[in-house]
Amino acid sequence: MGSVDSRPRATGRRYRSGREPTLIGVESRPVRxxxxxxxxxxxxxxxxxxxxxxxLGRAGELVGELxxxxxxxxxRETFHGFLMLALYRAGxxxxxxxxxxxLHRLLTDELGTPPPTSTPRRRWRSPPEPSTGCTKGWR
Length: 139
Description:
By secondary structure, this protein is mainly alpha-helical. The protein has five helices and no strands. α3 (59-72) runs antiparallel to α4 (77-89) and α4 packs antiparallel against α5. It starts with 6 loop residues before the first helix and ends in a 28-residue tail after the last helix.
């Protein structure tokens, strides 16, 4: 068994490898519903792995992947929140603000509602330290 430090990466690789929706083109509604639940669980597990990687100080390494995930899943607010956090911790505060503005525009224009003031399961306590990987401020 690998170190705790390597587990999010190893688990994440398994979940990152299957980015296509499960069972595309299947006509059976019960099977499609089950596939949708599987896809949602896979994304939730991927979110947990990314959260762990952020907690381990890998913000800079995640920016590219999170950018792609926000393109693939534009309405998945958690990915946007993680991208903003990764950018902020990488010392790219202006880029983090730009991500928020894009999300705000998307949700307001397409859904008629602004993004929530916090992402699920997390709250700001004090600003995190950019470039250090310190997680004390983001919970």
